[in-house]
Amino acid sequence: MRNLRIGIVGAGTGGLAAAAFLSRDGHDVHLLERFAKARPVGAGLLLQPTGLACLAQLGLDERALALGAIIHDLEGRTVGGRRVLAIDYRRLRPHLFGLGIHRGSLFALLHDEVVRRDVPITTGVEALRVESHARQRSVVIDRLGRHHGPYDLVVDASGMRSPLRRALVGRIRDRQFRYGAIWAALPITDAWPHRATLMQRYDGAPVMIGVLPIGRLPDDPTPRCAFFWSVRVDQREAWMAAGLDAWKARVSGLWPEVAPIIDGVRVPSDLSFVSYADVVVGRPYCPDLSLAVIGDGAHGTSPQLGQGANLALIDALTLAAALERGDSIETALFDYHAQRRRHVAFYQLASRWLTPFFQSDSRVLGFVRDATFGLASIVPFAEGQMLRTLAGIKTGIFSDLDPGDWSERYATRSLRLTTLPASSSS
């Protein structure tokens, strides 16, 4: 397709990745960001093999590895020590792993790539809606009434609370989960032995504690971890009112091993509260407005499966490839939706189904989880399905993306999934 003028709303993971891919393919890209300065939000995340494959196609995998922490396995136990989860990527394929990474580090990788490609970023733009313009173009209108564009295509990457999503035709589901999480990026002490493992502890379904090694920030060599603690959204104020000392005492009582880590929390501002929503759209594009929605705005999930950023990266890559193949914007948007539909639907359903076992008020679901999940992880077929789900390749109960010729190491540009679009030459 001819080179397009494309406006991207949101400079998070999905928006920056889309800008990099689309600029690489020769399009005239313009980023619009609501904050006064583009910045990351959150503490850390887990890049799955799928997300790493996308970074490799931009040539960013080596730098990601240098900043992040390789994660070989996930271990979840009750506070009493009973094993609930034991999932090792290497049991799926010997060379596979995840990568724990600080959101600031991932942001820096993608932001630097966008700047290198001379993509302009306009900050302080709180986009409200998209309207048609002359010659099948669209404009973005912000809260101050300013018009941005016109664009041949608008890509909405503004997140799960996107106001632009209202333009989509068909059913839109947007339901907030009852539980969110308190997050912090904290230094890892020398005593912490689990440098390649995502560790979790559970006390029934209401309490989940986790420690994910996330490497370092670009300008700070201190190794860090993402520490998280489940909290009900409507109990956040009560949690804050109880004070840090009471909270630290409770966490240390449930999981004494993490006491040195949470000592790094000095003041309440060291912690961030994040809520999540179950977002489902019937069709993540509007041909009449030349609008495509990617990332959480199209498929918000809880963080149980660690897929949010990975899904956004695949969205960005898939949309860019669809525009390369398409003979019109409308056919490209249809193709984008067709390519992403089954993969996204599986992870939305899996997230919705699994979340109550780990974040809910149910005593029964916590008991069922503790009694059955550990057994499932040692049954070969069930273990294989759990591994494929964690790795991000599932497209249905009995189907997944074809791993194809994944490289034996991620630090090469050849790493890819054959069902993901092949990279254009840089």
* Main sheet: strands, sense, barrel: 7 strands, mixed
CATH class designation of the domain at 5-70 and 101-176 and 277-357 and 373-400? Alpha Beta
Instruction: Give the beta-strand count.
Output: 23
Using only C-alpha atoms, the radius of gyration works out to: 21 Å
Instruction: Enumerate the strands of the largest sheet in spatial order, edge to edge or round the barrel.
Output: 6-5-15-16-17-14-18
**Helix-residue proportion:** 25-40%
For the terminal residues, how far apart are their CA atoms? 18 Å
Annotated CATH architecture of the domain at 5-70 and 101-176 and 277-357 and 373-400: 3-Layer(bba) Sandwich
Q: Which residue ranges are poorly predicted, with pLDDT under 50 across at least 5 consecutive positions?
A: 403-426
Overall outline: globular
Question: What can you see in these coordinates?
Answer:
This protein is an alpha+beta fold and about 425 residues long. It has a domain at about 5-70 and about 100-175 and about 275-355 and about 375-400: FAD/NAD(P)-binding domain (3-Layer(bba) Sandwich). The chain is about 35% helix and about 30% strand. It contains 12 helices and 23 strands. It has helices spanning about 15-25, 50-55, 60-65, 105-115, 235-240, 245-255, 260, 295-300, 310-325, 330-360, 365-375, 380-390; strands spanning about 5-10, 30, 45, 70, 75-80, 85-90, 100, 120, 125-135, 135-140, 145-150, 155, 170-175, 180-185, 195-205, 205-215, 220-230, 270-275, 275-280, 285, 290-295, 395, 400. Strand 20 (about 285) and strand 21 (about 290-295) form a beta hairpin. Mean pLDDT is about 90; it is low at about 405-425.
